[in-house]
C-alpha cells in the first residue's frame, strides 16, 4: 500500500530497529505500570492499608523524575558519540532491570526491603526510558527522506502501543492460565522474566543498523558540541518547554491506560474480569498503533502542527463520552470507549518524532528531543494515575478525572500556537545560527 511502499530495504531495517527497541523498552515499562494497579499494592505495599494502591501508583510516577537525568546523560553522549551506541545501552539497562523486578520477593518474605528494591529498579527503568526515545526517534527521522520524516518518525512511536499490546497480552495470558491466587503469588512474574528473550531479539536487530547519516556528517565536519546542554538551554530553552507541554497533554491522557488507572478502576471498582479488561486494552492498543501511523503519514501531507490540533480536538471531544461509557461496566462499550479514546492519542503522537527533530539543530538535537520528551513525561504522565485515583476517591466520580485530562489537553492545544511547523527543512544544511534563534521561541 502507498503508506509503506516507498520505504526501501535499508530504511525498513532502520525503522524496524527503532520500532523494535522502543517496543521492548515500553513493554518493560508498561508491565510494571499495569502490575502496579493489579498486583503490587497487595504484594509489596499491603501494610499501608487503604493507601496501598495510591503508593503503588506513586512508584510508577517516581521513575519519571529520573527520566530527565537519563535524557541529559543520553543526550550528551548521543550528541557527542552517536545515536546507535546509546540505543544499545538503554535497551540493556531497561531489560536487565525488568528481569530483576520479576525476581524481587514480596514483602511477606523480606519485609520493607521488597518495596525498596522495587522502587530502585523502577528508577533504573526511568533512567533508561529517558534516553531511549530520543535516540530511536532521531535514528528513524535522520535516515528518512525529507518528505517522509513524519511516517518514518511514527515507527518508533508505535513501539508504545505495541509494547502496551504485548504487556497486556502477557499479563492477560498469565492471568488466564493461573487462578487469581496463583497470579498474585507468582503468575505476574512471568511477563517480567520473558523480557530476557526480548532483549536478545532487540540487540540482534539494533546491532545491524548503521549510524545516522546526519550525525556522521557532523562527526566528519567536527561540528559536535562538547557540552550540548549549554547551548540547548541558552538558545532553545523555550522550545524545550513548549515541546514538553505538547507531550504532557498527550501523555496524561495516554497514561490512563498505559499507567494502569483504567485497568485498576475497571477491575476493582466496576468489578469486571481482569483478563477481559486487559483484552479490551489490547484492542485499543491496535487502534492507537494505526492512528499513530496515520498521524505520521498525515504530518507529511498537511504539516505536523495541523495534525496535533486535530488530535487534541478529538481528545477533548471524546473525553466525557469516554468516561460515560467506561462507567456503564459494559465490556462492549468499554472496548468502544477505549478504541475511540486511542484515536486522539495516535494523532498527537504520530508527528512527534519529526516535529522534535526539526525543532533543533543537529549538534543539540538528541539532547533537545530527549529532554523535551522526558520533561513532558514528568509533567503529563508521571503521576497521572495517582492524580486520577486521588480525584476519583475524593470526589466519588470519574468526571473529576475527566476535567483534569481536559485541562491538560487544552494546554497542549494552546502550545501548538507557539511552535513553528518546519516540515521538510533540510536537517543537515538549514541550521539557523543559534544566536538568531535565541529570541524566537517558535524558530
UniProtKB/TrEMBL annotation:
Protein's organism: Amycolatopsis eburnea
Cellular component terms per the entry's GO annotation: plasma membrane
Entry superkingdom: Bacteria
Domain Major facilitator superfamily (MFS) profile positions: 14-424
Positions of transmembrane segments: 29-46, 52-73, 85-104, 116-141, 153-177, 183-205, 277-295, 307-325, 331-349, 370-391, 397-419
GO MF annotations, alphabetized: transmembrane transporter activity
Annotated Pfam families: MFS_1
PROSITE patterns for the chain: MFS (PS50850), SUGAR_TRANSPORT_2 (PS00217)
Localization in the cell: Cell membrane
Keyword Transport set for record: yes
Full protein name: MFS transporter
Keywords: Cell membrane, Membrane, Transmembrane, Transmembrane helix, Transport
Residue stretches in coiled coil: none
Membrane topology reported for the UniProt record: Multi-pass membrane protein
